[in-house]
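Action item from last week, closing it out:
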Amino acid sequence: MPVPNIIEFDVPIDGEHEGRIYLLWPCNWAALHRFVKEKFDLDPGDRDTWDGKCYFSQELDERLGRPSVVMALKSWELNQKEPQLRETNSYQLSLLAHECFHAAEWMLKQTSYVAPAIIPGEQWEAWEDAAYLLQRIMRRALEVLLNE
């Protein structure tokens, strides 16, 4: 596999905190391991059975001074002109959403976010902050991925 594309961007977590995302693609386990080891001198583990992966750790956050995540996608290819590839496109987008959720969840936990108790009649508010952060991460990731 060739050297992955690597993009980093910041994302507002809430009114007080900002997080850092590193997005790598196309990226296999060896490339993810090499990136995390060389850039941060950390070990992301050895699990090689994924199409997408989020690496995060307390040590990574401490090194960067803020909540941080390395998201790796084994592949990224959308084809808007070929209708028969819609299933592939939907898989790629849903995989990205899955990894963005892990990133949002980690970042919120690192800022001591606790989902509010569900208020009768206002259940949508319980995870609204998580949904907005997921939206911001996904939007930034798609801005990069769709322009490649």
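Closing note: The chain has one domain: 5-145.
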